[in-house]
Amino acid sequence: MTEHFIDRLLDAADKTAPVCVGVDPLYDQLPAELKTATALKDQHLAAISTFCHQLLEIVAPIVPAVKLQIACFEIYRDEGVKLYFNLIRHARKLGLLVIGDVKRGDIGSTAAAYAAGHLGHDAAPDAVTVNGYFGAEGIEPFAKLAGASGSGLFVLVRTSNPSAAALQDFQGADGKKFYEHVAELVAAMDESCGLVGSRGYSHLGAVVAATYPAQARRLRQIMPRQFFLVPGYGAQGASAEDCAAAFKDDGTGAIVNASRSVIFAYNSPAHAGRDWKKAVSTAAANFAADIADAVRR
Amino acid sequence: MTEHFIDRLLDAADKTAPVCVGVDPLYDQLPAELKTATALKDQHLAAISTFCHQLLEIVAPIVPAVKLQIACFEIYRDEGVKLYFNLIRHARKLGLLVIGDVKRGDIGSTAAAYAAGHLGHDAAPDAVTVNGYFGAEGIEPFAKLAGASGSGLFVLVRTSNPSAAALQDFQGADGKKFYEHVAELVAAMDESCGLVGSRGYSHLGAVVAATYPAQARRLRQIMPRQFFLVPGYGAQGASAEDCAAAFKDDGTGAIVNASRSVIFAYNSPAHAGRDWKKAVSTAAANFAADIADAVRR
Question: The complex's ipTM?
């Protein structure tokens, strides 16, 4: 897997849609038939394992990529982390690209340790998310290892949650908001450590929420070579139109993620009484079509 | 362990010094006698396990607390995470308080999953570090679970690495720097979700680097109830005098961490030819005395 990550992602997205299903499994939300009567954590984890393996099989023909939320696995400590890496292997066998949503970040030497744990080995995802609060020094080790292994990274720039504004929209003396400043740092770093693929995008990407489309448009200008990972669609409130703001006019430049609205679709009134697999498959297909339509319009 | 975390930490620090040894094991840095001739990762991890267990035993009589850097364990994926939690148990048996340096952070529901994985269970540390880039929503789940379990958290405010300034010192239109803004958010959150112990400190603490003493003094004013976890001493360049800026006049308010300068002391010329355990023990004792002197002066 030394081909450029974004080239691989775009090739796969061309055949389906620029979307990604977020695998954020929570035991309480599992289909009733997979739950057990016990409160034993290892049985809960076994149910999550069954659910996730089947989930990957359901979405593999529909979407190009999945995003695994490691927090949901860390609830179960080392056993959960083992499942996380097993699922990456399973997803890859199914032809899916995998983003590890790990949001790691630390000072340089520690960031290098995180990068070694999460990128470039046989069970590693194709890309990870990175928290850039430590500045360039905390991002570079991920960029370096990702570059050497045909992988990618997405640095948090503007997140999708309501209370993020209190920090990320902090107004600078130079007229810029803090998130714009982070975006400029990412674009500047790209000059030194970004690897641009055949489609014009760097392996050093950014997380840009769909819940603030005006900001996404501004960030699209600041970071022309960055590929955006876009959270916020569905359960978090953003529409496909909102998501389209993260894309360029040619319909490339981003991948939209939906987690809860797809993987727990069977819990919504719209799918009541339906087989959980059918509900997930329908929700994934609708999500892909919704985004493809909005982007190609 | 429902007694307030900071009360427990201060009681222990009163008997020794307000310091913490950072357990950031890297295979390459291990004592020669513990290394193996093989490149096999599981044998490397076994050597790290031996080193860390012995390290905890060496420092337990000298310092009140240790800080485990999970990144160094995540290099070895689930097996490394298993060792991380085993070491927490071992440290606790030795009477040490344990800070899990995990720097997790995400949107609310995901932060709750991270909190469940890292706080409040039988193998969980007494406190964790949290990356607050998501704002209040990403910090609250940690504060809630920590409060319910007599644990604590330290939110990253000003980190110790050189390139952090590019983001954390971002100058605001209101005359404040970004890190001051983060500190104000933490202090404001403390009003709603902080639990203050008998010594006047909240279980909601902050990470404040020793490498910028003027900033630490300023942050001491903005966050009077926050206990500071202070990185940057030793290998990162801060002196004991620099660290003292994070403390109040009564000598409380912070705990200073040293990692590499203590745990890899045998690799420094000052300890050449010495037994590694003796070198570590001496370095830990010197570190504790250095900080105690500077703070009580």
Answer: 0.97
Structure tokens at A1: 């897997």
Q: Which residues of B touch A24 (CB under 8 A)?
A: 109-110
pLDDT at A236 > cutoff 90: no
State whether B161 and A135 contact (CB < 8 Å). Answer: yes
pLDDT tens-place string over residues B171-185: 999 999 999 999 999
Tell me the count of A-B CB pairs closer than 8 A.
176
Whether residue A103 lies in the annotated active site: yes
Alpha-carbon span A288 to A64, nearest angstrom: 10
How does residue B243 score in pLDDT terms, banded at 50, 70 and 90? very high
pLDDT > 70: what percent of chain A?
100
> Could you give the CA distance from residue B187 to residue B196 in angstroms, rounded to a whole number?
12
pLDDT band for position A225 (cuts 50, 70, 90): very high
Residues of A in contact with B103 (CB under 8 A): 104-106, 131
Q: Kindly report the number of other CB atoms within 10 A of residue B152's CB atom.
A: 30
- Transcribe B11-32 into DSSP letters: HHHHHS-SEEEEE---GGGS-G
Q: Which chain A residues are within 8 Å of B181, Cβ to Cβ?
A: 167, 170
Of residues A75, A77, A166, nearest to B135 (C-beta): A166
CA distance A128 to chain B (A): 14
CA nearest to B102, candidates B153, B158, B46, B26: B153
Backbone angles phi, psi at B45, to 5 degrees: -65, -35
H/E element holding A5?
helix A5-15
Min Cα separation B120/chain A (Å): 11
Give the single-character DSSP code of B181.
H
